[in-house]
Amino acid sequence: MGNGRMKYIWLAIVAALVAMLAIPAIQRLDLKHSVMAQTEVNSDAIAEVVIADLTQAGSGAAAPELRRIQTAGDYALATWIWGEAGGQTLVKLEEDAWQVIESGGGAMDQTILQELGVSAAEAEQLLQSEGGDEPR
Predict the structure, then answer these.
(1) 80 and 87 in contact (C-beta within 8 Å)?
(2) For residue 89, what are the domain limits?
(3) 66 falls within a domain
(4) Model-level pTM?
(5) HEC per residue, the chain
(6) Phi-psi category of residue 83: left, alpha or beta, with phi > 0 → left and psi -120 to 50 → alpha
(7) Domain of 69: which CATH number?
(8) Looking at the chain, which terminus has fewer C-beta neighbours within 10 angstroms, N or C?
(9) Nearby residues of 82 by Cβ (< 8 Å), 6 or more positions away
(10) How many CA atoms lie within 13 A of 46 on its CB side?
């Protein structure tokens, strides 16, 4: 085998190894974009349900402002401000639709969330001060 031919074989082997190593990185990148897109879709759907629930009474005041949406499993906790007041709304994903479980002024704590059916681990995630979805 000539020296030139051996050089091309080694180049082909190196190229194949580089390609094999790059594929998992590209797949991880695609997965990250997919998760981010899903999170944005969930946040939008959650926001719609929460705002519709809050404005159902038809107070005529400005629309509530969602400050944060935190998700854990099939639950989401939305924190909102409406005029001078603020509160939280707990929603649950049931049959591909978000349903309001509880909504009211003030903040919910772990005990309240667990009384509403949220597991201890999910309640802890919902109450974390960082992480989860971006503040709205």
Answers:
(1) yes
(2) 39-126
(3) yes
(4) 0.65
(5) CCHHHHHHHHHHHHHHHHHHHHHHHHHHHHHHHHHHHHHHHHHHHHHHHHHHHHHCCCCCCCCCEEEEEEEECCEEEEEEEECCEEEEEEEEEECCEEEEEEEEECCCCHHHHHHCCCCHHHHHHHCCCCCCCCCC
(6) left
(7) 3.10.450
(8) N
(9) 54, 61, 62, 63, 64, 65
(10) 29
* Backbone torsions φ then ψ of 125, nearest 5 degrees: -65, -45
Question: What is the token pair recorded at 86?
Answer: 């603020």
* Contact indicator for 102, 108 with CB cutoff of 8 Å: yes
**pLDDT tens, residue order, the chain (136 aa):** 566 666 667 666 665 555 555 545 444 444 443 333 344 558 899 999 999 988 886 556 678 899 999 999 999 999 999 888 899 999 999 998 999 999 999 999 999 999 999 999 999 999 996 444 444 4
Residue 117 in contact with residue 136, Cβ under 8 Å? no
